[in-house]
Design goal:
The longest helix is centred in the first third of the chain and has 18 residues, at about 50-70. This protein has about 210 residues and is α+β, with helices and mostly antiparallel strands. The strands form 4 sheets. It has a 4-stranded antiparallel β-sheet, with no helix packed on it. It is about 15% helix and about 25% strand. It has one domain (about 1-10, about 30-205).
Length: about 210
């Protein structure tokens, strides 16, 4: 769950009990500050990994991306975890374990109302108890504005952003840099001073009947 003020919380589905009826009041997912509101919810895959393994994987993956394409990484802005996770002691990953974690990694796109956004590893969003205040999802300030969307994306996806001024932009997701969880992100859509992004949609890769794009 993500809030407009840049807070997020990740908890297990079974932490939300099944209620007897549709009109039940429900349970608290995240504790909101005054003036804040929940603007997005997504389902992530669960991967059995220790905090130390996740931390080590993200550091190693960052080094690999920098070696492959220095311009594709927001240098100095990407990091495993800006808020240290309990039990995240340094570990050494075997090549097999690194490959296993890489195969199950997801990336979460987060976009602000001023048109800034980023992709962050799902391993950066630690699991916690339901009902807390959460952790930082993205910096909210005058430059970025409040957050408007956050959801998992694939490398082959495209995204479309629409503003309250009736403008839209469509771009491939790989144009959006991978960056740390609590950073500002990069500009995706240049908005006017009195204009805001109000909707962000994922456009999955399409294929024809022969399996070709």
């Amino acid at each position: 769950m993500l809030t407009a003020a840049g807070r997020c919380i990740r908890f297990r589905v079974e932490d939300v009990r099944v209620f007897k009826g549709r009109d039940s009041t429900g349970v608290r997912g995240i504790r909101l500050d005054e003036g804040d509101e929940v603007i997005s919810m997504a389902i992530l895959r669960h991967v059995e990994a220790t905090p130390g393994e996740r931390e080590a994987y993200m550091r190693q993956a960052l080094a690999v991306r920098r070696a492959q394409d220095a311009e594709a990484v927001d240098a100095g802005a990407e990091g495993p975890g800006e808020e240290a996770e309990e039990g995240a002691e340094a570990v050494e990953l075997t090549p097999e374990r690194y490959a296993e974690l890489g195969a199950r990694e997801q990336f979460v796109l987060t976009v602000s109302e001023r048109g800034f956004g980023k992709r962050s590893s799902s391993y950066a969003y630690r699991i916690s108890g339901r009902g807390g205040k959460g952790i930082t999802a993205m910096i909210v300030n005058e430059r970025n504005g409040r957050l408007v969307a956050s959801f998992p994306v694939e490398d082959s996806d495209q995204i479309m952003l629409v503003t309250d001024g009736g403008k839209l932009i469509r771009c491939p997701i790989d144009d959006v840099r991978i960056a740390g969880r609590s950073v500002q992100g990069v500009r995706i859509f240049k908005t006017e001073d009195d204009e805001k992004v109000v909707s962000v949609e994922r456009i999955p890769e399409e294929s024809n009947g022969n399996g070709e794009e």
